[in-house]
């Protein structure tokens, strides 16, 4: 072990001659040289140990293993070295270039003579020395040392205690070293049980292995039939020592001061996999050493050595290691078991609720320690990583590679067939195994999809057929080719289906230029679908992926998972179609947690986007944030099953998280009980089903197209209507009278815009016009005295049905010129008063914050103080702190004239938090006209 002494002073001038610090070791002067950073440095070691180490290095190549360089005695004059070394036993310098009299190994020291020249540096125990102060105004290193003998190791006879003292003007500083056996030598592992394919991180705590104080040391152990210990067989840079330079230090350990340490052995059994990393770049060294394990120091002179570098260990677990089998690792007579095993996985969405709604981004939580492959890094469940098991959601019956076979690679002169398998029947990725193959410059691959043309006809939507509309898609992931087989660009890649055999009856489904990355979702053209439908139903189907660029198979270290799926969305023969598969690439929450996280959300189709490719392009079929599509409610027997292949009691099993996906009943309301000319009319539609992206504010504009049946509504040019506004019993529309155009709803710029990302609440505003077009568009009339009606066309209500929800208010009379002579009816609104009390399940007033699971009653006394009977709807809506509706319930009644009734609705919170309780009284659920002002209450629910 080399000891480095550093003195840091305030006086660090580099261009002024100053005296060296007065430092001694056991009373003998220690030469200190100034570095280019202004600090002072010296290196020393025990004389006998240095000679023994250098003797061991002599059996190998110069400059490798524990080579101290060459030695000069203390009688060497200062004219040779530039400094007086008479108080030492001798010194070790880089090599003998320009000198005579140098010695090596255990030979006695001689006085050296000559002039040192540029060394080739045999010294391998100080590999990163500080540079000397070479300012021309001062002697080299301030003490005149010859730069060609730096770094110089000063040698002293040491035993037991070593006292180092620094005398300075302000007093004496000292350090005492205990030159004896190293205490607390240990070996430890990062965990007690390891899943298949994982890294094993072993740590040796042994200060005696720390030779070089200026850089990280590495030690390589051969744990096979020929035990061996090598110093710096693999350097930090990854450069391996030459075969002749290797020195097995086991025969020398005793003379170097080691006892039971310095040797490592392993029982790899059928569990342990010895492998390489960026330092140990080979699994073998010449001389029959083929079971290597390299440990690298965590930093210069820390004395702590790890089997890993950059998070990759030289020790791992075999991918097929039997459950609960054990290997072992032994150092300093301490043995630790390396046990293989599996743990049960759990998969949840959100907080474990049985359902979640559209527009809600819920958290996916996977607890699976079997996929905690590397305890030093954050593991990622990538589709392109063959060992990863991917949480997967399948809806309908998409076509995947589950039945494929016959993978063949081609270049311009030959082809090779490679094995493939689908080991994970859940994520349905095809694992291609090219590990034992070699092919430079391949351009394409083909495979048998294992299906017939009829399977494609059953899947795809042919828009030329009656009662059919929609889109068809290719979902692909080829990133493993990017990672391992040298495909750097996919911009020229095409995909072609063949029918009957490879090369027969081609139908191109992806043309060059469509693919921009290693995975994605691409639409198949209607012309390609027509060509597929023309094929004989019984023909087998083959796939060709032509990269139109060169890849390379050169004995890759891993297999290559790929994905090729075929999707369809829309209507076929008046039946809803939704065939897709989604794979969540979750990320570990922190190193060694075994907990993986991501998000999931879904969008519900509506009449405006059900055939829109843009909606499909916004889906996320891969990644940590999954977004999928539904076209109707999926509940009970039709609920989704989000699943992953896990393990239980050592056997594979599918772990499933089942969830109901309800659709929502929308509501439409107007913001006032009456409107005057020029006042704002605000229409609010509340329907989470309209949220197609939880991160984006969604807008639905009105249609301004006289040729469309949806003109002057919120809809589309195809005649689909989302919302329409009626005034005086007919649609608020445009007209042309005497050549002059008068606008309707679209002319106002009316747009339904979400109040915030993912709220599911949409508002639109227009000003009450002075004139509106008559129903037959032949005249202008006043809206005064009529009703304002908003009709929301709910594509999917809570039962999955298509319904229309309406809301109506009156427009009050006002003195206003009119074109017609029709009488203006007098509108009289009902008069309702309300008084509300919030109580617990026993009917007592709720005076304290309620707890989760506690019943909360909302009881209101409603009085009809008008002479006519009044239909009422009593509504309680609960929102969480983010504005999402978590509870909505109503009751209906008929309140006769001059009477009073009590209405009560109960809510049981399931999660703690801050909530808003909103209470409405409306004129029935058909018209949705508010009869009283909304009441709102804040509630804090405790755990």
Structure description:
With 943 residues, the chain is mostly beta strands. It has 7 helices and 66 strands. Strands 28, 31, 32, 34, 37, 39, 40, 44 and 45 form a 9-stranded antiparallel beta sheet that branches. Strands 1, 4, 5, 6, 7 and 10 form a 6-stranded mixed beta sheet that branches. 42% of the residues are buried. Mean pLDDT is 90; it is low at 813-830.
Give the secondary structure arrangement, pairings included.
Blueprint: E1 3-7, E2 22-25, E3 28-29, E4 33-34, E5 40-46, H1 47-57, E6 70-73, H2 78-81, E7 90-93, E8 99-100, E9 113-114, E10 153-156, E11 160-168, E12 171-179, E13 186-189, E14 202-205, E15 218-222, E16 228-231, E17 264-267, E18 272-274, E19 292-297, E20 304-306, E21 308-309, E22 312-313, E23 315-317, E24 326-331, E25 334-339, E26 346-349, E27 362-367, E28 392-395, E29 405-410, E30 415-418, E31 420-421, E32 430-432, E33 438-452, H3 453-459, E34 469-477, H4 479-484, E35 494-499, E36 507-510, E37 519-524, H5 526-533, E38 540-554, E39 560-572, E40 575-583, E41 587-588, E42 595-604, H6 613-617, E43 625-630, E44 640-648, E45 651-659, E46 667-670, E47 680-686, E48 699-701, E49 714-715, E50 721-727, E51 730-731, E52 735-737, E53 740-742, E54 751-754, E55 761-767, E56 772-773, E57 780-781, E58 787-794, E59 803-810, E60 832-839, E61 856-864, E62 870-879, E63 885-895, E64 900-907, E65 913-922, H7 924-927, E66 935-941
Parallel strand pairs: 5-10, 42-43
Antiparallel strand pairs: 1-5, 2-3, 2-11, 4-5, 6-7, 7-10, 8-9, 11-12, 13-14, 14-20, 15-16, 15-19, 17-24, 18-23, 19-20, 21-22, 24-25, 26-27, 27-42, 28-40, 28-44, 29-30, 29-33, 31-32, 32-39, 33-38, 34-37, 34-39, 35-36, 35-38, 39-40, 41-42, 44-45, 46-47, 47-55, 48-54, 49-50, 50-51, 50-58, 52-53, ...
């Amino acid at each position: 072990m080399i000891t480095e002494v550093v003195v840091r002073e305030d006086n660090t001038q580099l261009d002024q001659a100053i005296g060296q610090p007065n430092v001694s070791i056991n009373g003998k002067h220690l030469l200190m040289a100034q570095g280019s950073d202004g600090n002072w440095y010296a290196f020393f070691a025990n004389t006998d140990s240095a000679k023994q180490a250098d003797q061991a290095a002599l059996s190998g190549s110069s400059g490798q293993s524990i080579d101290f360089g060459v030695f000069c005695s203390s009688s060497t004059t200062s004219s040779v070295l530039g400094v007086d070394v008479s108080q030492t036993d001798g010194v070790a310098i880089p090599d003998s270039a320009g000198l005579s009299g140098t010695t090596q190994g255990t030979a006695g020291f001689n006085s050296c003579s000559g002039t040192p020249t540029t060394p080739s540096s045999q010294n391998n125990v100080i590999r990163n020395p500080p540079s000397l102060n070479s300012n021309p105004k001062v002697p080299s290193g301030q003490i005149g040392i010859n730069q060609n003998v730096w770094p110089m190791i000063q040698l002293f006879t040491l035993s037991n205690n070593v006292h180092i003292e620094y005398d300075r003007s302000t007093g004496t500083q000292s350090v005492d070293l205990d030159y004896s056996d190293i205490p607390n030598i240990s070996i430890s592992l990062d965990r007690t049980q390891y899943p298949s394919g994982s890294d094993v991180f072993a740590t040796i705590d042994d200060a005696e292995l720390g030779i070089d104080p200026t850089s990280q040391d590495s030690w390589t152990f051969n744990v096979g039939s020929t035990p061996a210990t090598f110093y710096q067989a693999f350097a930090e840079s990854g450069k391996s020592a030459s075969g002749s330079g290797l020195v097995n230090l086991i025969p020398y350990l005793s003379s170097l001061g080691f006892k039971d340490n310095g040797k490592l052995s392993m029982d790899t059994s059928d569990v342990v996999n010895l492998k390489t990393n960026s330092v140990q770049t080979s699994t073998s060294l010449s001389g029959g050493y083929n079971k290597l394990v390299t440990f690298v120091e965590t930093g210069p002179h820390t004395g702590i050595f790890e089997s890993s570098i950059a998070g990759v260990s030289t020790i791992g677990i075999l991918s097929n290691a039997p459950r609960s089998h054990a290997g072992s690792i032994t150092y300093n007579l301490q043995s630790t078991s390396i046990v293989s095993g599996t743990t049960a996985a759990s998969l949840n969405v959100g907080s474990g609720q049985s359902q979640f709604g559209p527009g809600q981004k819920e958290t996916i939580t996977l607890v699976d320690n079997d996929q905690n492959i590397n305890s030093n890094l954050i593991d990622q469940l990538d589709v392109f990583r063959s060992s990863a098991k991917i949480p997967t959601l399948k809806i309908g019956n998409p076509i995947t590679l589950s039945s494929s076979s016959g993978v063949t690679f081609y270049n311009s002169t030959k082809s090779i067939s490679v094995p493939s398998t689908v080991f994970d029947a859940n994520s349905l990725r095809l694992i291609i195994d090219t590990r034992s193959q070699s092919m430079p410059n391949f351009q394409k691959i083909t495979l048998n999809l294992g299906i017939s043309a009829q399977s494609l006809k059953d899947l795809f939507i042919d828009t030329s057929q009656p009662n059919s509309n929609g889109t068809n898609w290719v979902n692909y992931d080829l990133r493993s080719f990017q990672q391992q087989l040298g495909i750097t660009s996919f911009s020229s890649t095409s995909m072609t289906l063949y029918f009957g055999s490879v090369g027969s009856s081609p139908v191109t489904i992806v043309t060059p230029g469509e693919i921009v990355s290693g995975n994605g979702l691409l639409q198949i053209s209607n012309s390609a679908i027509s060509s597929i439908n023309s094929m004989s139903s019984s023909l087998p189907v083959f796939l060709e992926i032509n990269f139109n660029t060169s890849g390379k198979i050169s004995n890759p270290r891993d297999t290559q998972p790929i994905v090729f799926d075929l999707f369809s969305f829309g209507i076929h023969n008046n039946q809803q179609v939704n065939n897709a598969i989604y794979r969540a690439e979750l990320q570990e929450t922190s190193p060694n947690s075994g907990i993986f996280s991501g998000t999931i959300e879904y969008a519900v189709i509506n009449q405006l986007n059900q055939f829109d490719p843009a909606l499909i392009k916004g889906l996320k079929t891969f990644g940590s944030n999954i977004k999928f599509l539904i076209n109707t409610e999926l509940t009970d027997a039709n609920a989704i099953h989000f699943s992953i292949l896990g393990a239980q009691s050592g056997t594979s099993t599918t772990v499933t998280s089942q969830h109901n996906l309800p659709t929502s009943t929308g509501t439409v309301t107007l913001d006032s009980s009456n409107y005057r000319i020029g006042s704002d009319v605000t229409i609010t539609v509340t329907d989470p089903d309209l949220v197609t992206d939880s991160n984006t504010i969604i807008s639905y504009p009105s249609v301004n197209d006289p040729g469309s049946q949806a003109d002057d509504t919120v809809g589309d040019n195809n005649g689909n209507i989302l919302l329409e506004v009626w005034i005086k019993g007919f649609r608020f529309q445009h007209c042309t009278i005497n050549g002059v155009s008068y606008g309707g709803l679209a002319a106002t710029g009316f747009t339904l815009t979400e109040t915030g990302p993912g709220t599911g609440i949409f508002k639109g505003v227009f000003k009450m016009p002075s004139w509106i077009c008559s129903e037959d568009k032949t005249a202008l009339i006043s809206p005064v005295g009529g009703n304002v009606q908003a009709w929301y066309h709910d594509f999917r209500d809570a039962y999955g049905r298509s319904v229309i929800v309406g809301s109506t208010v009156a427009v009050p009379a006002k003195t206003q010129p009119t074109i017609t002579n029709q009488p203006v009816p007098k509108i009289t609104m009902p008069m309702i008063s309300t008084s509300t009390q919030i109580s617990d399940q026993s009917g007592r007033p709720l005076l304290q914050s309620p707890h989760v699971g506690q019943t909360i009653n909302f009881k209101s006394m409603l009085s009809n103080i008008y002479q006519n009977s009044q239909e009422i709807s009593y509504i309680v809506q609960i929102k969480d702190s983010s504005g999402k509706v978590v509870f909505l319930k109503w009751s209906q009644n008929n309140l006769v004239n001059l009477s009073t009734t009590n209405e009560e609705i109960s809510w049981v919170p399931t999660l703690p938090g801050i909530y808003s309780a909103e209470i409405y009284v409306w004129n029935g659920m058909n018209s949705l006209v508010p009869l009283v002002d909304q009441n709102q209450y804040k509630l804090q629910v405790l755990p």
